[in-house]
Amino acid sequence: MTLALAHARAMTIELLRHPAYVVPTLAFPTVFFVFFAGSETDADMRMATFAGFAAIGVAFFQFGVGIAVERASPWERYLRTLPVSAGIRLLSRTLSAAVFAVSAAGVLIAVAVLATPVGLPAARWGELAALLVAGSAPFALLGIALGYWAPARGALPIANLLYLGLSYAGGLWFSPQHLPHAVRSISPLLPTRAFANTLAAAATGSAVPWSSCAALFGFSVLFAALALAGYRRDEGIHFS
After folding, report:
1. Is the N end or the C end of the chain the one with fewer CB atoms within 10 Å?
2. How many helical (H) and strand (E) elements, i.e. helices and strands, does the chain have?
C-alpha cells in the first residue's frame, strides 16, 4: 500500500505540472453545466447528473488516454521491468484519478450551489457522493480498456467521442425526455443512462432503481473483461 501511495503521489504531482490537463479537467464540465443546466428548475437533479459527467471525464482521459500514451513510451517499458505488480500500478492510477475526479465534481457542485437553487439534505449529499464513486467504476474500467486497445494517436479522439456521446445520449446533460426520438430509443441501453438514473434518484429523494444498479454492475463486468483482454494482448505484444 505504501508503494501504491508513493506512485499515486508522483503521478498526481506530474499531472499537476501540466495546466493543459488540469484546467480542462476541472473547468470543462462546469462550463457545460453553466451553459446547459444552470438555469433549469430541477437544479438538484441537473447538478447531480453533471457531477457524474465531471467524474467520468477523468476516467476516460486519465485512464484511457493516459494508458494509451504511456504504453508507447520507453519509460513505460522500463516500469514494466520493475518488481511492481500490475495491480499496484492500477491502484496508484485509481488513487490519482480519484483526486482529479473529486476535484472536478467538487468545482461543479460548488458553482451549482452558488448559482442555482440547489438544496439537498445532508443525508442525500452522502447518498449522492456514494453513488458518484460506485457509479464511476464501469467508466474507469472502460477507460482502462480504451487505454490498452486504442493506439496512442487515436486514444484522444476516441475518448472524446465516447465521453461526449455517451454523456449526451445517456441523459447526463438533459432529461431523457428532452432527447431526440432516435437518441431516446437507444438511451436506456447505455451505461450513462443507468448512471444518470441513480444520480437523479439520489438528488430527488426517490428510491434508487435497482435495475440501473444491476446494469452498472453488468457493464463493470463487461468492461473489466475488455480491460483484462487488452492488458494481456499488450503484454503479449511487448513482453512475450
Report:
1. C
2. 12, 0
Residue 1 has pLDDT above 80, yes or no: no
Q: Could you tell me the pLDDT band of residue 38, with boundaries at 50, 70 and 90?
A: low
Cβ neighbours for 58, distance < 8 A, ≥ 6 positions apart: 25, 97, 100, 101, 104
- pLDDT tens-digit profile of 136-193? 999 999 998 999 999 988 999 999 999 999 999 999 998 888 889 999 999 999 999 9
Question: DSSP secondary-structure letter at 118?
Answer: -
**What are the cell numbers at 131?**
453513488
- For the cut 80, the answer to whether the pLDDT of residue 22 exceeds it is yes
Looking at residue 104, its amino acid is A
Q: Which amino acid is at 87?
A: G
User: How far, in Å, CA of 23 to CA of 27, rounded?
Assistant: 6
Q: What is the pTM of this model?
A: 0.89
The C-alpha atoms of residue 105 and residue 114 are separated, in whole angstroms, by 14
**Complete DSSP assignment for 190-235:** SHHHHHHHHHHHHHHTPPPPHHHHHHHHHHHHHHHHHHHHHHHHHH
- Angstrom distance (rounded) from CA 120 to CA 6: 36
| Euclidean distance between CA atoms 158 and 40, whole angstroms | 31
Structural domain spans, the chain: 2-239
d(CA 82, CA 78): 7
pLDDT of residue 231: 84
